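Lecture 7, part 2: worked example. A protein chain together with zinc ion.
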Amino acid sequence: MDILIKKARLEEGAELQDVAIKDGKIAAIGHAIDADAKQVIEANGKVLVPGFIEGHIHLDKALIADRLPNKSGTLKEAIEVTAKLKPTFTKEDILDRAQRTIEMLIVNGTTHIRTHAEFDPSQGFTGFEAIMELKEKYKSFIDMQVVAFPQEGIFKAPGTEEMMFQAMEAGADVVGGIPYNDSPAKEHIDLVFEIAKKYGKPIDFHQDFKDDPEGMTIEYICEKTIAEGYEGQVSLGHVTALGAVPKKQLEPIIEGLAKAQISIMSLPATDLHMGGRNDEYNVRRGLTPIRALRDGGVNMCIATNNIRNAFTPYGTGDLVQTAMLAIPTAHLGGAADLPTVLPMITTNPAKALGIKDYGIEVGHTANLVLLDTESVTNAIIDLPTRLFVIKNGRVTVKTEKIVTVYR
Ligand SMILES: [Zn+2]
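Predicted complex, written out as structure tokens:
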């Protein structure tokens, strides 16, 4: 064996297990596995989870908050500030910031990401090409899916339609879209489906990012997904407007999402920062209705979106902290709710991203994180140190924490 992890906690209340890894795969799981290994990790009852899955992040515009502040904190100013900064981005600059961000994710136990790489006729493919380079460079640390993302719209920014096809030809893994920032929104959605079908790729929309439900196109996407036979291949990020829909109207939408097997990515770090900015009192939380979606059978995920820019002026690349943000704000702290949060950054986004051999099972690729906690239920609220990160059967990160109390 290459690595033998001894006495790990895989499930709450179950016996501790040894996990043996060979040639990048999980070779055995059992009690007191008797095998020689090049490296032995004594878990001592600590929780072992599959690597965290970052389902929605923008690497190309991370770490720019100090360059030009968003004073109002609104989405409108965030878009304006970022549009001013974009012409100053060189490829070297994007590579430098994106690499630092990827490394923040890696040390925090993330083994897979889906990143939106944007382009438009005025900026060209500088950022997109930088991200495609990093996908290759970091492949032994993190698997990256790159979304061809038309941030400025497709029809609103003439020339972008052609660029969408060029990005797919250049190897993009997912077709992106942003119906709320384009007109006509339905034609934008139709075009994204057309491109996705042509290249046989999944779809990921930035969707209904507003405090109010007017102009939502989510119902159209549900219909379109089923009509095109795209069930299980569509993800939607933000979807905050759904939080403003009363229960009676919300129920059929949730049924539609579940039927179309659409995954929802809540982005609490951004949505809490930007939502409810026009509310002077009883300020809305501006999140998608996570509990109702989960209870309605929708594949519910939590992701980061942005780190330290005009949309989200904070963040450390730690998905556990991001999930923690959703616990009080989406009422996920109850005894029955808490165990449902960890899957929102592990198994659920793995399903959304179509990762085939995910999870701690014999024969699966060994992508694992050993957490400094002995409770699976509390794996988020303990904000545990990531003691070891294992990617493709190799230890990529080891973190040691020494706390000394002087009495
Ligand atoms: Zn986004």
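The chain has a mean pLDDT of 97. The longest strand covers residues 110-118. Keep this in mind for problem set question 3.
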